[in-house]
Amino acid sequence: MQRKNDLPGSASFGFILENNLKAYRSFLMENCRSQVSYTKGTIITCSGTVSGRIFFLLDGIVKISVTNIQGYERVLGLHKQNTIFAMDGLPSEENVVVTTTALTPVSAIKLTFHELRDLFRQNPAFAADVVLYYGEVLKLMCYDAESQTSNHIKARLSNFIILYMQSEDYRHLGYLPFSHSELASAVGASRVHTARICAEFAREGLIRTEKKKMYILNPQKIRELASYHGFE
Q: What confidence tier does 175 reach under pLDDT thresholds 50, 70, 90?
């Protein structure tokens, strides 16, 4: 497995979150003073350190990742505008699990638990939607964990394809914008094995590939190969 490049256009990931809490952008900007900015490449929160904060993303793209003991990075997802990231940072005395990195210049609102609680008191609808948002993220993370425990890389790749097809990016582009190395990073497999499965899918007429583009020709067959169907 190779390290991936820190480029928004080439990131490999399990999920994309964007505009889930767009309705509350003005509310947060009017009631929160702790607006912060980060340059591209900034590590905003780092695994194994205490954060004590979560962030409402105003603009930019943030990568969520973990690194194994061999030093290889696995990218879990991307956050775009009007979402909350660094969600494991609220316990003020506990280390965070994931690392969050600015893939582009980022502006965000920084929130402590006490500030978030005050916002919930002011706007109960915001509180309810944050709970639903946390539930959606948890569902995606459980899906990712289930996918990674599958013994068959073909099933893991199929899972990833089906999930990505439900993203706004796929609906806009009409293809998966990944190289074999990036797909390998996303599904926890070697580049060679991933390329072999992609070639098999192409021979069977399930996909068509170009440079960093995968077009899905037979989504139903890919769904049949997936090991989990909770996101159909």
A: very high
Domain end: 81, 115, 147, which one?
Answer: 147
Residue after which a domain boundary falls, among 87, 121, 147: 147
Q: Which domain holds residue 183?
A: 152-225
Give the mean pLDDT of 101-129. Answer: 95
pTM for the full model?
Answer: 0.64
Report how far Cα 21 is from the mean position of its chain's Cα atoms.
Answer: 16
Whether 162 and 127 share a structural domain: no
